[in-house]
């Protein structure tokens, strides 16, 4: 195969999954009626600059050295409305998110990606900036950003059994969304929310579970295995584990709800067997409430 043909083939292969994901997200977003949205104001926007004292987590390149030279304090120059209108997404891509129970509905990961991209559609078309937490995809406006997000959500890098929230690179006083099954260690979740709260960032935690994970419909001899196969447990009487499992799941949900409450976030649990529209509407309204 010659070089142009090979390049085209690779490009088509890369782009193939993007239209279906984006189309599904746009279709879902279309079911939510948008009222007046966004924070644009005449005479402000990107032209308004604000100085604030530099703090932990600010990069040296963000410091305005001319302004800082006028005092003993380092100052960061930021766009107030850029921070206010920015929403940062973290969508868990760990292997646990591949679970799809009995196969009658989508996997947790597929539902998470569609919901995150759908809320991005609503926000971007409402005039806001959306990006990924961390430093890989800064928040931007525009249809091109939706394609960038769809591409990022389709990445196939090797991942661990359970995900860890990414709280780096968050703009002060912006908003954020964490979407995960939150079945791994909750200590990193607490650390990420605390870090976000320290920067004035508020948002929404959306826990996505499969109906089987919620109901634990197992009985008799059962082998429980993580999606990677690294974790495995066999029991002859699965029904005897049900009560303990449900108690621990309830405790986990309660802890997530409490973490959200004390940091100014909102928490909701969504099952893949339920309406994606209801979850999107909750997520969109949750972001509106933390403005």
TrEMBL record:
Residues 50-253 form the DUF58 domain. InterPro entries: DUF58. It holds the Pfam family DUF58. This is DUF58 domain-containing protein. It comes from Actibacterium lipolyticum.
């Amino acid at each position: 195969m010659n070089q142009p043909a090979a390049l085209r083939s690779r490009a088509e292969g890369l782009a193939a999954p993007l239209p279906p994901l984006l189309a599904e997200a746009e279709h879902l977003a279309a079911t939510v009626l948008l009222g007046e949205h966004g924070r644009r104001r005449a005479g402000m926007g990107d032209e308004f600059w604000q100085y604030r004292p530099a703090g932990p987590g600010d990069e040296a390149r963000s410091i305005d050295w001319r302004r800082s030279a006028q005092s003993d304090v380092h100052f960061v120059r930021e766009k107030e409305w850029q921070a206010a209108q920015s929403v940062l997404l973290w969508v868990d891509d760990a292997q646990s998110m591949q679970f799809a129970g009995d196969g009658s509905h989508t996997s947790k990961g597929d539902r998470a990606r569609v919901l995150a991209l759908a809320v991005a559609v609503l926000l971007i078309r409402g005039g806001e900036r959306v990006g990924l937490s961390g430093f890989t995809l800064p928040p931007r406006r525009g249809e091109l950003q939706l394609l960038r997000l769809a591409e990022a959500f389709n990445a196939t890098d090797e991942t661990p059994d359970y995900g860890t929230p990414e709280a780096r690179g968050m703009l002060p006083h912006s908003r954020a969304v964490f979407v995960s099954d939150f079945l791994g260690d909750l200590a990193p979740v607490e650390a990420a929310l605390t870090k976000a709260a320290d920067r004035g960032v508020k948002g929404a935690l959306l826990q996505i579970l499969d109906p089987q994970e919620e109901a634990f419909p197992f009985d008799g001899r059962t082998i429980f295995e993580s999606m990677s196969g690294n974790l495995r447990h066999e029991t002859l009487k699965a029904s005897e584990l049900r009560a303990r499992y449900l108690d621990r799941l309830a405790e986990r949900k309660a802890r997530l709800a409490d973490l959200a409450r004390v940091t100014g976030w909102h928490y909701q649990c969504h099952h893949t067997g339920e309406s994606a529209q209801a979850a999107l509407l909750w997520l969109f309204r949750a972001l509106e409430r933390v403005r």
